[in-house]
């Protein structure tokens, strides 16, 4: 019976059915491509990104180096400017502190090391009163000193006191070279100190005194020894009334009596 029913169904179905196929890899006419692993070798983007990263790193290093160089350059410039400002301030302060001494002894600039005013060069020395008066016209180690006969000859003490020669003694740098220096000086003409002795011009004879203004005006016509802090010196003095009578003061002021070397 069952077989008869199957035969009847087969006969009644004009299109025979195809057997059902399993859905597997063999039944797919288009085989799938195997999935590729996503690694650094199969992806082109990471290489490009790596190159970009290297470039950024180099740019970062260059920028950092530039910043360091600029920082050091700026620091050096600041130090230089500050140094120049300090130098200017010190120079200005020195000029203010040393202004009073500049014209006197040529010490016109403040010296930080010595903490004192010092001459800057020979020009400071030559412009000072010390050069004109005492011959301190040469520049040595920040000081104005006497270093030659020319310094002494150009000074006022050569014409005034006959001190025209350099003695190489810092205590008494200028002295008379001979009697001629003394006789050409004002101290010979006025006080009769016309003979060079013991590094100075002194009165050694009555003749020295007789030709002086001290004798002609004040009657001090004789030589007298006198104690001084520097030792015994010979001076012109009025030792008698006759000396006083030789002077103009005796006639004009009635000072005709010799007392202790003077006319009264």
Summarize the model shown.
The protein is α+β, with helices and mostly antiparallel strands and 264 residues long. The chain has helices spanning 2-12, 44-105, 122-126, 129-134, 149-153, 156-161, 179-183, 186-191, 206-210, 213-218, 241-245, 248-253, and strands spanning 109-111, 116-118, 138-140, 143-145, 165-166, 174-175, 195-197, 200-202, 222-228, 231-237, 258-259, 262-263. Strand 9 and strand 10 form a beta hairpin.
Break the fold down into its secondary structure elements and pairings.
Elements: H1 2-12, H2 44-105, E1 109-111, E2 116-118, H3 122-126, H4 129-134, E3 138-140, E4 143-145, H5 149-153, H6 156-161, E5 165-166, E6 174-175, H7 179-183, H8 186-191, E7 195-197, E8 200-202, H9 206-210, H10 213-218, E9 222-228, E10 231-237, H11 241-245, H12 248-253, E11 258-259, E12 262-263
Antiparallel strand pairs: 1-2, 3-4, 5-6, 7-8, 9-10, 11-12
């Amino acid at each position: 019976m069952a077989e008869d029913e199957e035969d009847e169904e087969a006969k009644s179905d004009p299109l025979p059915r195809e057997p059902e196929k399993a859905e597997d890899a063999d039944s797919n006419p288009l085989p799938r491509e195997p999935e590729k692993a996503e690694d650094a070798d199969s992806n082109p983007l990471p290489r490009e990104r790596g190159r970009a990263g290297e470039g950024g790193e180099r740019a970062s290093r260059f920028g950092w180096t530039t910043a360091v160089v600029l920082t050091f350059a700026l620091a050096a410039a600041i130090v230089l400017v500050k140094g120049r400002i300090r130098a200017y301030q010190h120079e200005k302060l020195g000029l203010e502190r040393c202004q009073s001494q500049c014209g006197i002894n040529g010490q016109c600039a403040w010296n930080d090391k010595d903490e004192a005013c010092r001459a800057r060069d020979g020009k400071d020395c030559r412009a000072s009163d010390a050069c004109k008066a005492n011959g301190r016209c040469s520049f040595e180690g920040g000081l104005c000193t006497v270093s030659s006969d020319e310094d002494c000859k150009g000074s006022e003490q050569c014409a005034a006191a006959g001190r025209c020669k350099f003695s190489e003694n810092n205590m008494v740098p200028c002295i008379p070279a001979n009697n001629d220096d003394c006789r050409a000086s004002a101290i010979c003409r006025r006080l009769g100190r016309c003979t060079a002795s013991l590094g100075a011009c002194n009165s050694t004879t009555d003749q020295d005194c007789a030709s002086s203004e001290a004798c002609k005006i004040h009657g001090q016509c004789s030589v007298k020894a006198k104690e001084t802090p520097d030792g015994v010196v010979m001076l012109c003095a009025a030792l008698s009334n006759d000396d006083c009578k030789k002077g103009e003061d005796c006639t004009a002021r009635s000072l005709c009596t010799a007392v202790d070397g003077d006319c009264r």
